[in-house]
UniProtKB/TrEMBL annotation:
<feature type="transmembrane region" description="Helical">
    <location>
        <begin position="375"/>
        <end position="394"/>
    </location>
</feature>
<dbReference type="GO" id="GO:0045454">
    <property type="term" value="P:cell redox homeostasis"/>
</dbReference>
<keyword id="KW-0472">Membrane</keyword>
<dbReference type="GO" id="GO:0015035">
    <property type="term" value="F:protein-disulfide reductase activity"/>
</dbReference>
<dbReference type="Pfam" id="PF13899">
    <property type="entry name" value="Thioredoxin_7"/>
</dbReference>
<dbReference type="InterPro" id="IPR028250">
    <property type="entry name" value="DsbDN"/>
</dbReference>
<dbReference type="InterPro" id="IPR035671">
    <property type="entry name" value="DsbD_gamma"/>
</dbReference>
<feature type="transmembrane region" description="Helical">
    <location>
        <begin position="485"/>
        <end position="503"/>
    </location>
</feature>
<dbReference type="Pfam" id="PF11412">
    <property type="entry name" value="DsbD_N"/>
</dbReference>
<feature type="transmembrane region" description="Helical">
    <location>
        <begin position="415"/>
        <end position="439"/>
    </location>
</feature>
<dbReference type="GO" id="GO:0017004">
    <property type="term" value="P:cytochrome complex assembly"/>
</dbReference>
<keyword id="KW-1133">Transmembrane helix</keyword>
<keyword id="KW-0201">Cytochrome c-type biogenesis</keyword>
<dbReference type="InterPro" id="IPR013766">
    <property type="entry name" value="Thioredoxin_domain"/>
</dbReference>
<protein>
    <submittedName>
        <fullName>Thiol:disulfide interchange protein</fullName>
    </submittedName>
</protein>
<dbReference type="InterPro" id="IPR003834">
    <property type="entry name" value="Cyt_c_assmbl_TM_dom"/>
</dbReference>
<keyword id="KW-0812">Transmembrane</keyword>
Amino acid sequence: MRSLRCVLMTVLLAMCGFASGPALAESLNGSSQHLMMTLVAESDHPKAGAPLTIALATTPEKGWHGYWRNPGDAGFPATFDWTLPAGAKAGDAEWPVPTTLLIAGLMNYVYEAPYAPLVTIQVPAGLAAGTKFPIRLKTSYLVCSATICVPEEKALSLDLTIGDGAPSQAAAFAGWRQAIPKPLDAGATYAAGNGTMRIAVPFPAGAKADKAYFFPVTTGMIENGAAQSVTRDGDRLTITTKVAANAKTGGPIEGVLRIGNGQGLGVKAVPGAVADTGEPAASGESVWLTALIAFAGAVLGGLILNIMPCVFPILSLKALSLARGGASEKDARGEALAYTAGVVLVCLGLGAAILALRAGGSAVGWAFQLQHPAAIVALLLLSAAIAFNLAGLFEVPTPRFAGESGASGAFATGALAAFIATPCTGPFMGAALGAALVLPWPAALAVFGGLGIGLSLPFLAIGFIPSWRRWLPKPGVWMETFRHILSVPMFLTAIALGWVLGRQTGADTLTLALIAVLAVGVVLWIGGSRQRKGKAFGIVTQILLLAVFVGSAVVIARAPPVSAKVATAGDESFTEARLASLRAEKRPVFVYFTADWCLTCKVNEKAAIDTAGVRDAFAKHKVAALIGDWTDGDPVMGRFIQAHNRAGVPLYLYYAPGAAEPTVLPQVLTPGLLEGLGA
């Protein structure tokens, strides 16, 4: 009965619109002001082969409203008819969180304030820079006031030019993305009985939910106009409302859970047990248990980072400085604590930056700064300077503190070790940092702090356990030779960073960076020559060094990115559309997300993914391989990674034919594991 009433109401409202001939005529020729619409591209110069996000910036006239993807009890959703260049494809619209509007007992899901659905368009690869890229959209929709509804059509256009993909509307898109519901990776359940629907959604006890409301995407399951009650039970939030008449339960229910003003979570609930809510849980033990497990994983992951080539030389030199200096128990412990403080504070700073950027709508993850060439060249020059120091070219200024005693030197060394360890991700780190992104911010920062504690544990142990220091070799001439040997992994680190920079920005920019490395070497040689004559390093020399660092970063930051990279032989570039297409064909799919600056990624690719045995097994079992290159920090890919509770790369997913969800594979792969996929 209610469904018939809804249909009749919609028809009557539409007839009212058609009865007002001038209003309809205005809407059809695009002059209506009830909904002001503009197509906005995130980049005016989209990159060939990369996704481009388009916003349909919409402003309702005062007293009027547009409709969400599910309009509710009345109205109809907007339709989009795209005309795009050959090879381009538009995805489904992503809708911001709507508001409710109850009229005569009918619930409408609407927008009364400015809003912007987002659509991702896949730009074809191979288009030359300067190629025109016209976008045309014909959209039909319903716009209503409190007394009348008017069907409208609009023809919108946008003319772009293929270029470097640099964002031109970053601030606007950050705000629009903030209003798009974030996918909830954890599974929700629902139970229907006796006319009542209860939907249980995993939600951390410490997280804030303001004016919570469930907007159904799946129609015909709940009574739209019925009141909703929301209760919290530990780390679960339960919505209770009425089941729709003649609802066919048993399948999944999709919807959006509003958790704040313009903020929401995308929810997919399946039938399952939902305990009675009304008895609040004693505490939020589950969320803190999750935080404790993530903290332990971060500590282990940080501990493993100490064997990385960029960290090991600094740790070794710092440990030997205790043996050479013969520090007292008090001094050894003080240095250990200072070193730990430097490591932990840098990790907390990076974690806070990640959480803040994500709160602003950015899809960044661990080592996010390496998505910017300026940060890479700064690390490259710093690694080269450390290597020159270890090789004996100079002694002061930076980074002589790596081998000096004292709390200040230990603190600076710890901060340096943490900073240059960011390109690395190891076992336990991915899951731990991914969990941090869904925890309350105090628990999330504790996880990042755990990473710092793990990174500093070896030196902390040396400082606090005297017997460990006695195992260290006695001071001697050999220490200078060992120091020179330690320069080799630092030079290798610099070479790796140069390779990453070249992959991101091309050979011309890499050449500029190598010139900057040469300039740094010359300046340090001049300073070292002064030192060998008994003079100070020199203020002028330090100013020149600073000028090379800053000038190189500024110049390289302005360098245009290279054209789209080619996927590994036999693999396809990852897009969500291609993944959906392969899954629709019932093919097994292996998806791996990587970045040029991710050491673990490159080791896995060389040792497991790109081996002959794995490739033969993939061909035999018809396993499709998709590669997601996140070197440049693509935001669409970043949100996909985030949806799988990962803070960065590597991420390895296996989609078995017919499976609802992928299997998340370990961060350290073996050929045997991959050869068994699809079997």
